[in-house]
Amino acid sequence: MSKLSPALKALIAAPHAKPGPAPASKGIERVYRQIALEAAAYKLGQPTWVTLCTAATVTRNSPDALSQLYSFASSLDPSSPSSSSHSSPSSNPTPASSQSHPSAHALRTAELIREVSLKAICFNGVPRTINMLNAFHSSLPPFITSLLRKTPSRTISPANTALIASAGKRLWDSVYLGFAEKLYNKLGEAHPDLPVHILFNEYGALLADWADADTTEKGAGTGTGEGGGGEREGRVGRVLTSVAAVACLRAQTGVGPQVTSHVFGLRKAWDDGSWRGDGEGEEGVRFLASDEGGLWVLGATDRICGSLDGEGEIRAKL
């Protein structure tokens, strides 16, 4: 009973079950590069397009592609015009130089990819994120892994449950502005514990940035969520969380109603002002909240999925 039979092991690993990760396509870096150039033309910062690409890639379960995304994004010079929100569509991203502190930029990029991958649990489930994060960590240079945050920032205790519940409710009310209570009640009809779980464990404990709020209130320190001050590297705030949600759900397929909800949720970040202080500029957020911005987020996600599926680039009809 302690060993699996050859027949059972063979069935677990059967090709039709797709038991392993998806390979990186030959053209995936070119797709990432084009999305980066478009983002710059739309006055979007690097964290936004990295978040979008990470969410889609994690959902499509391609560790090799995620490693390529990191290599490309971490090699860019964050201080150059072509890596900021002021480049033209025809410009080429500029490699990082020693004067731009590439190690610090590479660390921020790695932490951002880790954080987006973690939040993807809410949309893709735990197993895929476990496999993707393990593979991503193994692919990083040792000097980067040595600098990654080691202390948990989301440890739940009796002292912070009220804070988590409040943060979850605040994010829920923002994403579903005008419909939050109605949706909560509808979910409760499906199962009374469904909205309870979603608000506390998904929106509160994982999607909301309560750990950063907690550290700010408690004063100076390590920024770990246990008495330290300041934000964690790779923080994924209100706007980027909605970008990740849309990209994950679009890449997942079969959940059109949820894609629609989170496209609206991205717009609500503009409507209620929760985008302020979130790292993305006003012009970029205004674009993301527009019809054109929604088309771009969905189209960019489709192109990543099309490349990873071996279908070539799928170009959104704008």
Task: Tell me what you see in this structure.
With 318 residues, the protein is mainly α. The protein has 16 helices and no strands. Helix 9 packs across helix 11. The longest helix is centred in the middle third of the chain and has 18 residues. It is globular. The C terminus is likely disordered.
Quick check: average pLDDT? Answer: 87
In angstroms, what separates the terminal alpha carbons? 58 Å
Shape: globular
Largest sheet: none
What is the number of helical segments per DSSP (H or I, 4+ residues)? 16
Instruction: Please mark out the parts with pLDDT under 50 across 5 or more consecutive residues, or reply none.
Output: 81-91, 215-230, 313-318
- What is the helical fraction, as a range of percent? 55-70%
* Beta-strand residue fraction: under 5%
| Pattern of helices and strands | HHHHHHHHHHHHHHHH
Q: What is the count of β-strands?
A: 0
Gyration radius over CA: 20 Å
Structural class, judged by helices and strands? mainly alpha
Features:
318 residues, mainly alpha, 60% helix, globular, disordered C terminus
Give the helices and strands, then pairings:
Elements: H1 6-12, H2 28-41, H3 46-59, H4 63-74, H5 102-119, H6 121-124, H7 126-139, H8 142-145, H9 161-175, H10 180-190, H11 194-207, H12 210-218, H13 238-252, H14 256-271, H15 282-288, H16 291-308
Helix pairs in contact: 2-3, 2-4, 2-16, 3-4, 3-5, 3-13, 3-16, 4-7, 9-11, 13-14, 13-16
